[in-house]
Write a structure and sequence with these properties.
Elements: E1 2-5, H1 10-22, E2 27-30, H2 41-44, E3 54-56, E4 62-64, H3 66-76, H4 88-117, H5 128-148, H6 162-173, H7 186-195, H8 199-202
Parallel strand pairs: 1-2
Antiparallel strand pairs: 1-3, 3-4
Domain GST N-terminal: 1-81
InterPro entries: Glutathione-S-Trfase_C-like (IPR010987), Glutathione-S-Trfase_C_sf (IPR036282), Glutathione_S-Trfase (IPR040079), Glutathione_S-Trfase_N (IPR004045), GST_C (IPR004046), Gtt2-like_C (IPR034346), Gtt2-like_N (IPR034345), Thioredoxin-like_sf (IPR036249)
GO molecular function: transferase activity
Length: 203
């Protein structure tokens, strides 16, 4: 079993934190995204979306999309508490917040960064104005997280979950957009400081 990844990339980091929380070690292989290695036909044969991370099982089966990879490990290596929730309500709440943070937070942050920085302008059409619009939408979304954390210790409720993993990655990444988790977001700031001390995230 092997994971093809670029360690610091948000999607790959989500899988790494998830595996660390579960105490699972998997062989890793670096993929040079900036150099376009993920655009090669060999890599595309493994990854349906041409992106990292990709999990390759011993029988050659491959799984792309980081949350799908996390779901595989959650089912294949069950623990007392699932990072996707343990009962119907928990699972629904984790799914809800995971999707909210993913679609209104992390995805928007990536759109902002890629379009403002032009980091991949050699392979995609970068529109600076759309990047700035995405950045503003992100700024407007973040208080939603602060409001939620005023009533629950973690993003989706009483327990640490994959929604928290996605949120901490978002909070780390937005620094690239000069957005800070400051005193105007006291609940998010407290949560961020707390979860950042978890060994899985510090690693």
């Amino acid at each position: 079993m092997k994971i093809y990844e670029l360690g610091p990339a948000p999607s790959a980091r989500r899988v790494s934190i998830f595996l660390a929380e579960k105490g699972i070690e998997v062989e890793r292989q670096h993929i040079d995204i900036r150099g376009g290695e993920n655009l090669s036909e060999d890599f595309k044969a493994k990854s349906l979306n041409g992106q990292i991370p990709v999990l390759e099982l011993d029988d050659g089966t491959t799984i792309c999309e980081s949350v799908a990879i996390c779901r595989y490990f959650d089912e294949a290596y069950p623990t007392e508490y699932s990072l996707f929730g343990n009962n119907a309500l928990e699972k629904a709440q984790v799914e809800m917040w995971q999707r909210l943070v993913e679609l209104r937070g992390l995805l928007v942050a990536m759109q902002a960064f890629r379009n403002i920085s032009g980091i991949y302008q050699d392979r995609e059409n970068c529109i600076a104005e759309w990047g700035e619009e995405s950045r503003q939408r992100l700024i407007e979304f973040i208080p939603t997280l602060d409001k939620q954390l005023a009533v629950t210790p973690y993003i989706a409720g009483n327990n640490f979950s994959i929604a928290d993993i996605t949120t901490v990655i978002l909070c780390d990444f937005i620094q690239n957009l000069e957005i800070q988790i400051d005193d105007s977001l006291p609940n998010l700031q407290r949560w961020y400081q707390h979860v950042s001390e978890r060994p899985s995230i510090k690693a």
